[in-house]
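cache lookup: miss for this entity combination. No prior model stored, computing from scratch. Input as submitted by user K.M.:
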Amino acid sequence: MERKRLDEQIASKGVRLTAQRRAVIASLQEADVHLDAATLLERARQRNPNIDRATVYRTLELLKKLGLIDELDLMHLEGEKHYFEAKSVRGHFHLACFTCGAIVEYTSSTFEQLKQEITSEHGFEIQVVRLEVGGQCEKCRRLPRDSQLSESGEHTPRAVSQKA
Amino acid sequence: MERKRLDEQIASKGVRLTAQRRAVIASLQEADVHLDAATLLERARQRNPNIDRATVYRTLELLKKLGLIDELDLMHLEGEKHYFEAKSVRGHFHLACFTCGAIVEYTSSTFEQLKQEITSEHGFEIQVVRLEVGGQCEKCRRLPRDSQLSESGEHTPRAVSQKA
DNA sequence: CTTCCTGCAAACCTTTTGCATGCCT
DNA sequence: AGGCATGCAAAAGGTTTGCAGGAAG
């Protein structure tokens, strides 16, 4: 999923950043997956070891205020923490598999159409959309129960019970 | 939005309930708006004064496990708490106005179509869908900034800043 | 000189859990 | 007896805030 360059976007708004915030933002930008605040802190510290939790949260707050990132729950698959990603050029949403923990990104013109409808038929000005789907992915549906879990380390099926 | 009768659904599953749980469930069922756990506790206590927080959470957990309620974030308009509602017969989602705090329920055949697509094109078995839209409602868009806030007590615009 | 940023620690809020007790079958 | 439900209090987990010191304009 192609995402917007955060640093450029910020620069174009005339906002100046400190070294710490740049480290946080760069870590977020280059992440291949959706990061939660704790992981983001960890990665930012690889660039700038004395960054504090608070700075991460304050930077995320700034990015939210500028409308440059999305905040996700990912169906609370692993608790109440939030995940962040740079806004993508095209809208997309996430399918979360309760069995294997996989998160799949999904784009659909029907989704775009739905947003269109909300705007035009309801007069609602959309600023943020969060669509998250939980269930069982194709792979897990076809396989005997639990055979997914040990196959790959990239997914962490923390909670099989649905939280929403 | 027409919602399923929780007590009937539960009975039909052969689950027996205690008086406390019935009080919680009845309070949830009759609520006109989406309740968070604290408010639900408050209302349940009007029926049965010595109900504890833990009982409310444990009852909600049961209802989730039975697939009878939906858990919402409502765009974190008022913090991290969750809101609950009996599942409705037809799928619906919520438009949250960051300005006046109004929550509008929305149904759309395009939404149904989108779910259809996810299932058929992606082989994903949907168990839970959460679609939440944040922005500015028609009324607020037309009015000068902030003139909504004092007009009505039914909406509580705790956070104008978007959290997602 | 003023403003904003920072780390640190403490506070906050919602949700979860351990435990001893009690109810119901 | 056995199993589940309950209240209470404490813990957990993520996020926010007060504060004093610093850097930058």
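stored under new cache key. The interface with chain A takes residues 64-65, 70-73, 75-76, 80, 82, 95, 97-98, 104, 106, 108, 110-111, 113-114, 117-118, 122-138, 141, 161-164 of chain B (CB under 8 Å).
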